[in-house]
Amino acid sequence: MHNQDSFTPSYMKIQNYIWEKIESGEYGLGDQIPSETELAAMFSVSRVTANKAIKEMSLMGILERVRGRGTFVRANQNVSTASKAFVSAVKLDVTGNRQHQLLQFRVLDSFPELAEKSGLPEEAPFYEIILVNKNQEQWESLDYTYIPCSLIENIAPSLDYFRTHFVFDYLKSQPGLNPKFLKIFVNTPPCPFLESAYELLGKPDSMQIWSTDVYDANMKLLSTTFTTYPSSARDIPLFTFSL
Which of 65, 80, 81, 167 is the most buried (most CB within 10 A)? Predict the structure, then answer.
């Protein structure tokens, strides 16, 4: 089994820890949480990393930083969706033209990395949707999208929708799902389920991987997309946002 510590960014480990404490009731509304220095020591990271975790949760309206006093669980848990530059707490109206070709669809069983990332049991199944972005006859990039099967009973009738829409739009249209936040990671390490990208992209000398995670208002992971492309590729429009 792969170690989640090698898969989850350090600042997200801190955020997950705080979320667990809030959900369990150990940190109640208005309670003070450990300081950035204490969190940095607990997770063996720099204070900059701890600051990033706390700052992001403050922007989302979950925590409140009070100068000279510390950081507290916000009593008014209204999620902030104000547009902010270079943070994940953004109000999303994702637009842009996508003309992808559906390459593969299947259900994956027992992928520890995906299960750990989503906080699900190791045996939890996921839908896998692989789309190729083509420029004339050349394959420029591949999107590997994973959605827990537990969220949607049957995704197959909607596959064509993914060719021209972002996964955020699809999730927003589903009953009971309420996507709120998007996190984009660059220089994502390769995972075993992405091995086919190397062959599909023509065996490039090296590949770059971006990952895009969609969360609901409680920071529950709804989907993750890995975008793979050759390191030599230029000017590939991976994302278009209207904020």
Answer: 167
